[in-house]
Amino acid sequence: MNRFTRVKPHRIAWAALIINAVVILQGAVVRITGSGAGCGRDWPRCQGEVLPLSHGLATWIEFSHRSLSGVALLAGIWLLLTALKRRRSMPGFATMATLSMAFLLVEALIGAFTVLSGLTGDNVSVERGLLVAFHLLNSLALTGVLALTTLHSYPGQPWPPAWRGRSALKWLMGMGLLAMMLLMFSGGIAAMGNTMFPPESLEAGLAEDFSAQSHPLVRLRILHPFIAIAVGLYLWLSLAWTGLAHPAPQARRYRRLLAWVYALQLLVGTANLALLGPVLLQLLHLALAVTAFMLWTLVTWLTLNAPPLPTAGIRWPWQTQRGTDLHD
């Protein structure tokens, strides 16, 4: 037991973050391979067994996903207990670890409901598509909070948040978070549309997107690339404005990395569309999306909590007439 309690908090936080990122990618493999019904409608058991040894590949893919999800839950519990022991010296760490645990529990409940309600396998209902998209949103929020938990697992992080009065900047950065969640939701819809009704060619897929006889999830998937471009423009403009008006040195490297990651994500998404979604490209596209959201979460947090710096006479629309900082 002492060996576990002596592990440094940031190592536990990094482990929880990486495990959950892998679980998200593993969930995509379950969807792409059609293995969602591999364990039947049994939960938490699989095919009525604790260890399904005599079943096919689909069962093992789904079972491995459930098993790693269980490991992620245990890592979240370990992280929470570690953070609560340090709640006086590291209050931000304790708060973020508690939020992470809440999202982990929601993640487990959504997974259980998906299986028990039969929204897996050959089910092509709109309800299944929406549930998968909402599941993806919760996974995205979980990784964002885990990124903040990892940040606060290092000593010296300020707490409570110091963004009081920065209403315009909070709106600017908060809208970016909402825009990325909308993008991920539309991506979940598009992914389910492609999984349920895979197009034979790019031309056939585009024709189905605009056909009134197509499934609703198929008609909605065309929105995803347009939302991706719009969100990208918003993020890049926001990064440029905040980089000049409120530099936040702690956020500089995350800001630069986010710009490159999102640009790469758009390129991979375009290739994914043109090549009809090869498995590796789908996984890379999802990994970049999760990474971009975590980076934007960190940029938002660090920018809002950074002390105001002189702007050499630059005045932006959200600045007051009394000074050059971003306070009301």
What does this structure look like?
By secondary structure, the protein is mostly helical. Helix content is 69%, strand content 0%. The chain contains 11 helices and no strands. The protein has helices spanning 2-5, 9-32, 57-85, 91-116, 126-152, 167-196, 202-209, 216-220, 223-245, 252-274, 279-305. Helix 3 (57-85) runs antiparallel to helix 4 (91-116), helix 9 packs antiparallel against helix 10 and helix 10 packs antiparallel against helix 11 (279-305). The longest helix is centred in the middle third of the chain and has 30 residues, at 167-196. It is flat, with a radius of gyration of 22 Å. It starts with a helix and ends in a 23-residue tail after the last helix. Mean pLDDT is 88; it is low at 316-328.
List keywords for this structure.
328 residues; mainly alpha; 11 helices; 69% helix; 0% strand; flat; disordered C terminus
